[in-house]
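Tokens as discussed.
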């Protein structure tokens, strides 16, 4: 079991920055991968950024060069640093952890945090 608690969302003007936090209930190095997704009401949940236990990262094309996913092993926390925010980044952002148990992936989600980019 992995519990995830997100924080850091809010209202920001276009061009501004926010940092989202995802605190895990266990060592993030024991988790296969952690990721941030986002969802606009009525649409599917899309991958924003991912980091594996080995430190490899992957980003959606729409956020490359603006968003950075980093991890803090000492605090079992993964961050999403979001710069140069655009109105189209407005969404509920969710943290996801994938734990592989006996070859089968188990997915855990946080409760989500709202990000609104507007002037």
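Sequence:
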């Amino acid at each position: 079991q992995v519990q995830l608690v997100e924080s850091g969302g809010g209202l920001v003007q276009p061009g501004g920055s926010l940092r989202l936090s995802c605190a895990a209930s266990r060592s993030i190095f024991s988790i296969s991968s952690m990721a941030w997704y986002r969802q606009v009401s009525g649409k599917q949940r899309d991958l924003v950024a991912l980091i594996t236990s080995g430190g490899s990262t992957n980003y959606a094309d729409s956020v490359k060069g603006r968003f950075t996913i980093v991890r803090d092993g000492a605090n079992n926390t993964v961050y999403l640093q979001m710069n140069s925010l655009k109105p189209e980044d407005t969404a509920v952002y969710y943290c996801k952890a994938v734990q592989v148990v006996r070859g089968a992936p188990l997915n855990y989600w946080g409760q989500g945090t709202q990000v609104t980019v507007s002037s």
